[in-house]
Design goal:
Number of helices: 11
Strand content: 25-35%
Helix content: 25-40%
Radius of gyration: 24 Å
Order of helices and strands: EEEHEHEHHHEHEHEEHEHEEHEH
Number of strands: 13
Oligomer: single chain
CATH topology of the largest domain: Rossmann fold
Largest sheet: 6 strands, mixed
Structural class: alpha/beta
Number of domains: 2
Length: 310
């Protein structure tokens, strides 16, 4: 599949600060790419370079085959952008806003159809300053849809939305992908990234620390799967003796690491044979959020140790 976005050796410096330090990644056309990182990691700087809003210091960047900085006028007609904390004219209504964007880009989209996709049709005649924060975010996504772009840059598109509205936006993102368009997604909801994305990149301190599918990143950097009992600490002692592995007890839970996919049956049998009571049994694995927190924390701990070293 051809790349919608190609980044090689991207660097952005602000005086003596290197915000983005020689990063490389590509985004296949027709995919959802989640770009993740804590605040101050270099995420926003990278996205603004891709959108043609900020000039890079060095490196190669191509979006739809164009240089975002020198070919910005052409590129901006082919992309849709929803910024974080979307703002617009205070007195305009959602329907008027979509009609304005439709005229601006020469698009033939139906304003009511677009507003319906983001579940904002019932507010089509309300003024922007009367909308809730979540409804404003929905309007931002509606405007990103209005010129039928080839790439959507969605920055925290579900911030401030209730669970029902979040899932409606997820369905819109899935429909964009199904139509063969590309989504470049930034979000602080890691389960959202894991659920929606084809590929994920994690940036921290200006460096990419992981790139791949969510499953690949979890497999490479996550811990083993675990068997979990709701039980007293005595069960941990009995399982440790019976299985020869360390069972951990904390907060009313007993946890045993699993060596393989069939190990859960062995652990469950040992619990039954112990004769000790337990109220529930389940298996769990690290999520993308677990891995993200661990990787970022380890990198921060390493940086602090490096700073304090003589």
């Amino acid at each position: 599949m051809p790349a919608a976005i190609e980044v090689e050796g991207l660097v952005k410096r602000y005086g003596g600060l290197t915000a983005v330090d020689r990063i490389d990644f590509s985004v296949p056309a027709g995919s959802v790419f989640a770009f993740l990182g804590p605040n101050g990691a270099g995420k926003t700087t990278t996205v603004e370079i891709l959108e043609g809003l900020r000039q890079r210091t060095s490196g190669t960047v191509r979006v739809l085959g164009l240089d975002p900085w020198s070919d910005g006028a052409e590129l901006h007609r082919r992309i849709g952008v929803i910024p974080q904390e979307f703002r617009f004219f205070e007195k305009i209504t959602p329907r008027e806003a979509v009609e304005y964007y439709r005229a601006l880009f020469g698009s033939s989209v139906d304003p009511d159809e677009v507003l319906g996709r983001v579940e904002l049709l019932d507010k089509r005649s309300a003024r922007f300053d009367q909308l809730s924060g979540g409804q404003k975010q929905k309007l931002g996504l509606a405007l990103a849809l209005s010129n039928d772009p080839e790439i959507y840059f969605l920055d925290e598109p579900t911030t401030g939305l209730d669970p029902h509205a979040r899932r409606a936006i997820w369905n819109v993102i899935r429909s964009i992908r199904a139509a063969g368009r590309t989504v470049f997604l930034t979000t602080h909801y890691l389960e959202e990234a894991e659920l929606l994305s084809d590929r994920v990149a994690i940036i921290h301190h200006g460096h990419l620390i992981a790139v791949g599918t969510a499953a690949e990143i979890i497999a490479a950097h996550g811990g083993p799967a675990r068997a979990v009992f709701e039980a007293a600490p005595e069960l941990a002692t009995r399982l440790t003796a019976r299985l020869g592995v360390a069972a951990r007890a904390s907060g009313g839970r007993v946890v045993v690491d699993l060596a393989g996919p069939h190990d859960a049956l062995r652990v469950l049998s040992a619990a039954e044979e112990s004769g000790l009571p337990w109220s529930s049994f389940s298996t769990e694995r690290d999520t993308l959020e677990d891995v993200f927190i661990r990787m970022v924390g380890e990198m921060d701990d390493g940086a602090l140790k490096g700073e304090s070293a003589p």
